[in-house]
Amino acid sequence: MPVPENVPAPPRTLLREDAYRRLRDAIVDGTLEPGERLRDAELERWLGVSRTPIREAVARLEQAGLVHTRPGRSTVVTPLDSRAARHAQSVAAALHELATREATPLLGEEHAGALERANTAFADALRAGDADAAIAADDAFHGVFLDVCDNPLLRSALERSTPLLRRLERTRFSTLSGRASVAQHERIAAAALAGDAETAGRLARENWLTLDPLIPVPPAG
What order do you get walking across the sheet with 37-38 strand by strand? Predict the structure, then answer.
């Protein structure tokens, strides 16, 4: 079959979102290392998109603290900044607490199954040492509460605060220390399914605050 002609180009929003996610993931997984310079021409060849969606994606990455741009000069991948990471952790913990509290009264049997499946997948990924799969399963677990509470403002705020924490999550979920989250998830689910919104919310916040030991201590002086 010949290549189709006159096929409309993908919507610009999809190109921008794809460029953002691929760049974000490459920074989080270390493909693009701290201090590495991002050049438009190289990114165009790699991502297969024009300069405009790339620059829009880079602007979002800068808001998330993953890159630093000096206008007219360069864009570089930022090292993990301890102060920014602590701020992001505090915001993410508070937002997940709120999502869990709001969702708890609305949970049903189908949500119990979704939580259990996500946590089982999470435990399996941790045993296999698959940090990417663990992050996806962790997202699926907490995503149940985000879906049920159906608050778009929570999602948009988490979109800005979470990427900076992905580096920490990859480190944690690649080690034995991450396995404590399986039991934490079980306690969150149990409280939520029992209708205890206060306890479930508190446990969700504590779960996100467990990243604290992985945040580097800034040098003295």
Answer: 37-38, 74-77, 67-70
